[in-house]
Protein: Large ribosomal subunit protein mL38
Amino acid sequence: MLSSLITITTLLALSNAQSWVPSGDLPVDFTLTFSAPEMVYDVCNRNFTQSARTFTVATTGVAVTPGETANDPTAMTITGASSGDMFTILMVDPDTPSANVGTTEKPLLHMIITNITNADPSTGAVLDPYRGPMPPPCSGDHTYHYLLLRQTAALSLTVDDLPTYTPDCSLANLAGQCLFEVANFISSNQLTPVGYVTMVAATDGYVRYNYVNDRGMSEADSCRGLDGYDPCPTAPPGSSSEKVMVSVSTVMATAWCLLYFIVNY
Ligand SMILES: *[C@@H]1O[C@H](CO)[C@@H](O)[C@H](O)[C@H]1NC(C)=O
Ligand SMILES: *[C@@H]1O[C@H](CO)[C@@H](O)[C@H](O)[C@H]1NC(C)=O
Structure:
């Protein structure tokens, strides 16, 4: 019975991915402010208008658009820290549609700022500059996670160290960014999560415009999912519907093992 309990616990732990997401009440408030100008993106034979908006990301699940978060946050604040604390800010996207770019456990890196002192992010060293959301068409909602991590001391990391945390990254143009080992980064550098916010974005006119004009994507691909263009495939890799299917099969496999052990031991 004990061995079956251990096995069951292990199975449940394996199915509970994203081990690096902090849980419970965290002691420090971290916020980001974005200030987006009004913009019009002319792509896919239509104009996408983005209204001017200034807003703050201070909780989890804040809905934003890629266009209005394309530029660096205009402010980041850290409130409730002890004086003398040093921090690292990490931003990642675990919802990329390509498993070569990011996965739940090894997301795509979007930003690292380290050695922050005086609770002032502008004092930090930018190891990886902010890159805003770029959720490809038909890849559903992406959650962008920001972790505020307390350091035990100044970190001697450099940009050259980042590939250490992306050993499985096979894409040369994303070396040091794709398949970023968040859990390893946190434990190797003795970091403690003390603040956490997330923002959620799906593709928009800015992304479609950018993919066509700056990244050479075909208009057919970048306009997919809009009226008059190809519809989205029913379950593209990494899409939310595929994730639901994967979760259902994980739950069923776990339930099956559970039943097997209860019946046999
Ligand atoms: C988009 O807006 C521009 C400028 O206002 C206009 O010239 C153009 O015709 C518009 N395009 C479409 C497809 O409506
Ligand atoms: C962090 O601070 C330490 C001590 O001042 C310094 O040696 C190190 O280079 C800094 N890290 C970065 C990324 O600048």
Summary: Residues 23 and 151 are 18 Å apart (CA to CA). The mean pLDDT is 89. DSSP finds five helices and eleven strands in the chain. The first strand starts at residue 29 and ends at 36.
